[in-house]
């Protein structure tokens, strides 16, 4: 009898505990502490200058390995990819008109960094991707530790091709500029007139936006765009700038901005997604005048070849045939890794992805 009473009391306590938890989750979900990540084997994405020198060296070594490993995918080789790195750059080139100036911009580039991580793992690198805290160097990119000619990614470009020295000197990228494919050195041209626009004021402005529609636009047109303009990676070309490994530290910064924005209101912002899933012919890139056809000429990009168009994924896939990006939107890496949905990458610790920015 006593035992029964004890059990009953325990049951009541449990029930009241459950009901309290339910009430909390309904009324206070937004303010609840983030539960421990569901994913296993979390990697840390450290700011470059905080990484151990041995980790920096391991990253650069794997990066050079990807850039010198032969291409594997017949469809991409047929279009001019010679190295594994070329395949990654070609992915960005082929899909360029559906991943910029669009709602897919942030989820695609999060996925794109995941593809880079996969290629680095093929070359033995198991650590986290480095990111660049650009506000620390805003106005003074030229002296950033990331641009150290010896211990960074090589310095400012020099000579007619703006080729960078350092660890990537002498390597060739075969994809770009624009929709053409010509072998070039890793090149960049630092411009500290524009780099102040990556400072904390602009980051904070983007992070203060109330919804995804305004946040992606502020990130895209703010620190993201001005970082690109200040670095002019790979001929300053919007279509094929990932040829410079520095691109991925800049986009780590961009991805972290999105995550920091999401983390201000969890879990609501794990499902806030919208914006066009491809550029429209009349508008093209929102940062340039004119539509797609005008930009092809004015920016010197040319247009995708018929062979490129033949392997370009349908940007409406997963979006019910509509032009708006949904959580079911399918992102393709042209076969480097399996496709993923936008939903897969909304949470950087949701299981498909498993990393943290430190
Ligand atoms: Cu891009």
Automatic annotation (TrEMBL):
Signal peptide range: 1-23
Stored Gene3D superfamilies: Di-copper center containing domain from catechol oxidase
Sequence ranges assigned to domain Tyrosinase copper-binding in this UniProt record: 244-255
Keyword Flavoprotein (UniProt): no
Keywords: Copper, Metal-binding, Signal
MF (Gene Ontology): metal ion binding; oxidoreductase activity
InterPro entries: Di-copper_centre_dom_sf, Tyrosinase/Hemocyanin, Tyrosinase_Cu-bd
Keyword Iron-sulfur listed: no
Domain of life, source organism: Eukaryota
Name the UniProt record assigns to this protein: Tyrosinase copper-binding domain-containing protein
Organism: Apodospora peruviana
Highest classification ranks of the organism: Eukaryota, Fungi, Dikarya, Ascomycota, Pezizomycotina
